[in-house]
């Protein structure tokens, strides 16, 4: 029989589609198996119990997170560099926007906080009382909390489906966690560093960066990472423990207009950004008005005039976002919960572990403005009471706890004995999941006391 060119081409196309479909099918099935294996390992040994304010503040008890669902992207990664982040379910719209400005792999730990009445005979946590209530397990979630978890699952699934259906958006892996608290007050103990660490555990690339969900990533970073050899270039820098700093900006206006401007600022060119930068213009250095020391070491004046990376020195309270490799990135210290010092300590540990800081010349972040959280308001109020009015805070005050923890960290770094506190349950996962990359094993160098003054 003579070969029909059109028919032959059609058959070849069908064969190609079958092969590709089989590859993606097998790959997706393999990823589903890995995701379930990881979820089972994280939840191994989990017991329902209520988190109590005084117990957490005064006895340093751990957060008690339950992983409810893992959803992994089936889209092939656009490049081998992952942004990881954390958020509450109500901030899914912000994650969606972040997924439009950053178009590569992303790992997100999403959180639901639940309040449930303690068992009979147990008092609720109360900041007015300094007594520590023993931790008690409970038998099951209450019916209202079961509904809240189911609603969160549905929201996250629909959200993930929406991101998956758009080929131009990020390739999103999600973990959905919840924690049970015995009071609205205890609910303020948001496990920010736990969530960051779990999101990082889920990362499937060597090169990574923790970027908070309210920071939009400039289009230039995705464009650069998609270029041949650029990921390998940044991976090569990890041998020298170089952290690539991403300068951060914020719109000068708050609210809806500020959020619209934040998105715009992530999409302009660097030269356009320079024309929009200034106190009486559209953008300024992040936190310039309230906490300039957090980002001033980046040297924004120099940044606008540089076309090559440049080195900057670590300064006390520096807290930039950065790019590095998984095997040399320190863990976030989970003793820091709620609000305050959580990222500052991580950057101090980079200095402790002999990192150098190099500013990226052509990529940046833009903060999307939002209302302050209740816990941030609490810490700010307590800090003001101490710093402006010389007030003596009670033993279970969060700001007092933060200052004690930071003092302990400083002493550990000055002595060369600091090691970030990490959830033991999370670290046990490495013994149960063979395909995970080994956790970092870092040795620090004593930090001079002058660095912290």
TrEMBL record:
InterPro entries: Xyl/GlcA_transferase. It is a single-pass type II membrane protein. Keywords: Glycoprotein, Membrane, Signal, Signal-anchor, Transmembrane, Transmembrane helix. One of its GO terms (biological process) is protein O-linked glycosylation via mannose. GO terms for cellular component: membrane. It is found in: Membrane. The keyword Magnesium does not apply. One of its GO terms (molecular function) is glucuronosyltransferase activity. Residues 1-28 form the signal peptide. Its main location: membrane. Pfam families: Glyco_transf_49. This is Uncharacterized protein. It comes from Volvox reticuliferus.
């Amino acid at each position: 029989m003579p070969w029909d060119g059109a028919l032959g081409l059609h058959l070849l196309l069908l064969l190609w589609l079958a092969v590709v479909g089989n590859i993606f099918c097998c790959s997706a099935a393999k990823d589903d198996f890995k995701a379930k294996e990881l979820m089972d390992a994280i939840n191994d040994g989990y017991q329902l119990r209520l988190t109590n304010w005084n117990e957490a503040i005064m006895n340093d008890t751990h957060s008690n997170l339950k992983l409810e669902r893992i959803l992994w992207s089936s889209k092939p990664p656009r490049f081998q560099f992952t942004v990881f982040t954390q958020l509450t379910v109500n901030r899914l719209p912000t994650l969606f926007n972040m997924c439009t400005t950053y178009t590569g792999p992303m790992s997100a730990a999403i959180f639901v906080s639940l309040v449930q009445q303690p068992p009979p005979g147990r008092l609720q946590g109360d900041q007015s009382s300094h007594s520590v209530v023993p931790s008690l397990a409970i038998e099951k979630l209450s019916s209202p909390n079961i509904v809240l978890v189911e609603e969160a699952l549905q929201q996250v699934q629909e959200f993930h489906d929406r991101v998956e259906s758009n080929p131009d958006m990020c390739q999103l892996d999600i973990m959905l966690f919840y924690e049970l608290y015995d009071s609205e007050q205890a609910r303020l103990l948001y496990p920010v560093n736990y969530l960051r660490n779990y999101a990082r555990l889920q990362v499937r690339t060597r090169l990574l960066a923790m970027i908070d969900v309210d920071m939009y990533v400039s289009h230039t970073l995705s464009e650069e990472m998609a270029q041949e050899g650029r990921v390998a270039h940044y991976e090569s820098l990890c041998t020298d423990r170089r952290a690539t700093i991403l300068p951060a900006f914020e719109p000068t206006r708050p609210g809806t207009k500020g959020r619209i401007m934040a998105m715009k600022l992530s999409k302009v060119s660097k030269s356009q950004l320079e024309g929009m930068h200034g106190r009486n213009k559209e953008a300024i250095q992040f936190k310039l008005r309230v906490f300039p020391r957090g980002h001033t070491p980046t040297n924004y004046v120099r940044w606008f005039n540089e076309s090559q990376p440049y080195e900057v020195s670590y300064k006390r309270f520096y807290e930039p976002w950065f790019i590095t490799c998984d095997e040399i990135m320190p863990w976030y210290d989970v003793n820091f919960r709620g609000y305050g010092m959580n990222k500052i300590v991580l950057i101090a540990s980079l200095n402790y572990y002999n990192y150098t800081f190099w500013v990226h010349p052509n990529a940046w972040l833009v903060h999307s403005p939002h209302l302050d959280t209740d816990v941030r308001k609490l810490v700010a109020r307590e800090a003001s009471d101490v710093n402006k009015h010389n007030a003596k805070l009670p033993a279970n005050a969060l700001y007092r706890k933060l200052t004690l923890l930071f003092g302990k960290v400083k002493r550990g770094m000055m002595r060369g004995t600091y090691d970030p506190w990490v959830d033991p349950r999370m670290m046990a996962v490495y013994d149960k999941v063979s395909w995970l990359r080994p956790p970092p094993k870092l040795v620090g160098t004593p930090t001079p006391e002058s660095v912290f003054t």
